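Private note to self, pasted from the team thread so I don't lose it. Backbone tokens:
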């Protein structure tokens, strides 16, 4: 997306300036850094961003730095630019959290496409995370017993099976289901199940957290 933020990490000022001009010309905001350490010392991960890291010949210390940047959270996606484009180096960078690895020198369009791809994936992941948080908040409206009933429904169990497992009557299960629909403001079973699956209801830790 245009106007997204791109961090440019390169110890060569001329390269930083060249990349910054290219990115500005294509609608991106740019924050240049002379080193990864300088970026880590600042609040660089306060918004979604792509991080371009130029590592001409990546060392073990460079890869440790890459890992440290990616550990700061899910708000950034890193692309490694390197003149050392062998498979081993690329695999090592990807294993340390890089979203992409581009051999340099590269055509401008290849670089821009790589940035668009990782930013698109980043935004999609954040949108999915937001939907999951909203769905978990919906589950938080339910009582522990209602969560158990919903768990059974999401597992594909019939009312009589849920009733037997919980030691209640099928009619009581129906009452709980009606309460669930009202609390979650859903008119259909499909709507409830959609929220349940987005929240990851069948994961035990989600049930415990919602309760």
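Design output:
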């Amino acid at each position: 997306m245009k106007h997204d933020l791109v961090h440019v990490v390169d110890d060569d000022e001329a390269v930083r300036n060249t990349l910054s001009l290219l990115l500005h010309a294509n609608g991106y905001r740019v924050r240049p850094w002379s080193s990864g350490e300088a970026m880590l010392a600042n609040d660089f991960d306060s918004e979604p961003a792509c991080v371009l890291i130029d590592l001409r010949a990546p060392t073990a210390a460079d890869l440790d730095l890459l890992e440290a940047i990616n550990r700061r959270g899910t708000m950034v996606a890193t692309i490694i630019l390197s003149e050392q484009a062998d498979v081993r180096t690329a695999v090592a960078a990807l294993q340390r959290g890089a979203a992409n690895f581009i051999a340099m020198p590269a055509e401008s369009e290849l670089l821009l496409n790589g940035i668009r791809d990782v930013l698109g994936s980043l935004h999609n992941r954040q949108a999915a995370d937001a939907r999951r948080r909203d769905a978990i908040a919906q589950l938080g409206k339910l009582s522990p017993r209602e969560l158990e009933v919903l768990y059974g429904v999401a597992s594909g169990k019939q009312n009589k099976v849920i009733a037997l497992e919980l030691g209640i009557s099928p009619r009581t299960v129906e009452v709980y289901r009606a309460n669930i629909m009202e609390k979650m403001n859903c008119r259909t079973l499909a709507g409830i199940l959609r929220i349940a699956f987005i929240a990851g209801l069948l994961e035990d830790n989600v049930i415990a957290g919602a309760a």
